[in-house]
Design goal:
single chain, alpha+beta, Gyrase A, domain 2, 4-stranded antiparallel sheet, 31% helix
Length: 157
């Protein structure tokens, strides 16, 4: 079985919240795809409740695309501590951390229920499992802690 880089990371050494570049893959045509770890809470110490994480996921899908070029996907970790962000091209962790900070600020302060895309039976596979209240609460908490551009040394942007 292929070794997965994220599963070799010592989760006891990282200091969340942070942005970490997991890998940059170069395709046959020299195109670059980057995979980032957007870790919002400390692994094995906390987890964002599913409904709040689900709403954050739907919001980040649009908000990060508004701020970064080449966003392919932003998907939650099963452990509910953060997200994978997949992009075309190369971005610095500082650039991604700033975009994440801006998106979380919007969630915490400006977003209303009407802004959340994909919350009905036609556009979501589990439309009943959302909580804007929880998303706002967690976004605020993460912003208070500060988002680092380094997983091991707190370099808050």
């Amino acid at each position: 079985m292929a070794k997965i880089e994220s599963f070799t990371l010592d989760h006891t050494k990282v200091k969340a919240p942070y942005v970490r570049l997991i890998t940059e893959e170069v395709g046959e045509n020299k195109d670059v795809i980057s995979n980032f770890d957007l870790r919002l809470v400390q692994p094995n110490e906390n987890a964002i409740p599913t409904a709040g994480l689900h709403t954050i996921e739907h919001l980040l899908a649009g908000l990060l695309r508004d701020q970064l070029t080449g966003v392919i996907d932003c998907s939650p970790f099963g452990c509910r501590t953060g997200f994978h962000l997949i992009t075309w091209g190369e971005h610095s962790t500082v650039e991604v951390a700033q975009a994440l900070k801006n998106a979380l600020y919007e969630i915490a302060t400006d977003i209303t229920w009407e802004d959340v895309q994909g919350t009905d039976i036609y556009s979501c596979g589990n439309y009943r499992d959302h909580s804007l209240f929880s998303a706002k609460e967690w976004a605020g908490k993460i912003l208070e802690e500060g988002i680092s551009s380094d997983p091991f040394i707190r370099k808050v942007i």
